[in-house]
Amino acid sequence: MLRKAILGFVASVGVLAAVEVGLRLFLPLDTLLFSWERPTGMISRNEAGGMVTRPGMAEERDDGPYRWATSLNDLGLREDDEVPAKKPPGTYRILAIGDSWMYGFSVSQGHTIPDVLEDILPAKLGQPVEVINAGVFGSCAFDMLARYRQFVDAYEIDGVLLGQPHNAGRLQRVEAERSAWYRAYRDGPASTARLYLLTRRALAPLRSGTYAAPPKGTGQQAEIADLRLLALDAKARGLPVWFAEFPDQMDHGLRGFSGSPAWRKGLADAGVRFGGHALGERACWAFVDAGHPGESGAYVIADALSDVIATGASLDTIRITPRCADVAAAGPGKPGWPLP
pLDDT tens across 185-205, in order? Predict the structure, then answer.
C-alpha cells in the first residue's frame, strides 16, 4: 500500500513537472503577471506619434522655421546616453517626470526644461547637477505615477520634479489599468512557476475583497490623487518634490496665467514646492505649435524652478520675469526668428 502511494506521488510529481515544462515553453512569464507586477506595464503607450515607445530613436522635426532634434536612450528617456544607476560622486540628481512639456516637444535636444536646469542649477546649489528627463508626451498624472514607480528604485536620486499634466482626458482610456494598479498586492509573485501563476490568476476574482479601491474622483480630482500618492511616497523616502505650474496652451498664457490653486491645495500636505512662469509673451511659445513653449519658454520656466529647488520654498506668485524676449534662446519675433 505504501509502495503504491509513493509510486502514485512520484508519478503525480512527474506529470506536474512535465506540465510545468510545457507551460514554460508556450506561456511567457509576462502573460501571467498582473499589470502592477510588470516593471513597465503601466508606462504610457502614446497615441501621439510613438516617439517615447521607440527606445534609441533619433529624428528631427520642423516647427515652422525652427528645426528640432530629439533622441531617446535605450529606456526611452530623453537622454543622449544611458544613465547609470548610481549618480556621479558629489552630483545632485533630479528625476523629472511629466508630459510633453517636460519632454520638450518642439524644443531641440539640449534646450528642454531639464537641460536648462542642468545648466543653471550648479551655480545655485554649489555642486554638479544632473536632471533625468523621463517626460512622456501625451501622458496623464497616472502615467507620471507609473513612470515614477518604474525609475525611483532604479536610479539614485535626490529629488523629483513634476510638470503640471495637461492630458486629463487620457484618464478615461487608462481607467482599467489605473484600477489594477491600486490593488493592495503590487509586489512580484512568490514564484514564477506557471502552474502557480495560472492557479493564482484563476482564483484572483474570488479574492476581490482583499484588494484596495483606487481613490475616488474624476478629472482633476483623480489626477491630484495620483500625484499626491507619488509625492507622499517620495516624502517618505526623504526626497523633495517640486511642481512646475504651466498654462494649458498659448492662448491661456497670453490671456494671463496666475497659477494652479487646486494643485497647490491638493498637494499641500505632501510637502510639494511650487513654481512656474506665466509665459505671457508670444516669444515664449513655439512657432507653429501653439500647445507648447519653445526654447525661450523652457528657459524662463527652468529659471523659476531653479529658485524653488535652490531655496526649498514655493514661489508666492507665478513669475513674469525674466521676459522671454530678453533671454538668449530661440523664440518667435526675436532677432533672427520671424513670427509665424
Answer: 445 566 778 787 788 777 765
C-beta separation of 114 from 103 below 8 A: no
Residue 207: is its pLDDT beyond 70? no
Cβ contact 332:338 at 8 Å = yes
Give the predicted TM-score (pTM) of the model.
0.78
Helix (H) or strand (E) holding 225: helix 220-236
Question: Dihedral of the CA atoms 307, 312, 316, 322 (nearest 10)?
Answer: 0
Over 98-131, what HEC string results?
A: CCHHHHCCCCCCCCCHHHHHHHHHHHHHCCCEEE
Tracing cell 522635426 back to the chain, one arrives at 61
The type of residue at 158 is D
The residue type at 65: P
Q: Is the pLDDT of residue 290 over 60?
A: yes
Checking if the pLDDT of 245 tops 90, the result is yes
- Tell me what the mean pLDDT of segment 67-75 comes to: 90
Model confidence pLDDT, tens digit, residues 125-135: 999 999 999 99
| Beta-bridge mates of residue 59 | 70
Q: Is 77 left (phi over 0), alpha (psi -120 to 50) or beta?
A: beta
Confidence of residue 214 (pLDDT cuts 50, 70, 90): low
**Element of type H or E holding 233:** helix 220-236
Residues in the chain: 340
Contact yes or no for 327/296 (Cβ under 8 A): yes
How distant is the alpha carbon of residue 3 from its chain centre? 61
Distance between CA 98 and CA 100 in Å, rounded?
A: 7
Question: Please, are residues 189 and 165 in contact by the beta-carbon 8 Å criterion?
Answer: no
Q: In the beta sheet, which residues pair with residue 67?
A: 62
State the Cα–Cα distance between residues 64 and 164, nearest whole angstrom: 26
CATH of 46-187+216-326, one of 3.40.140.10, 3.40.50.1110, 3.40.30.10, 3.30.70.270: 3.40.50.1110
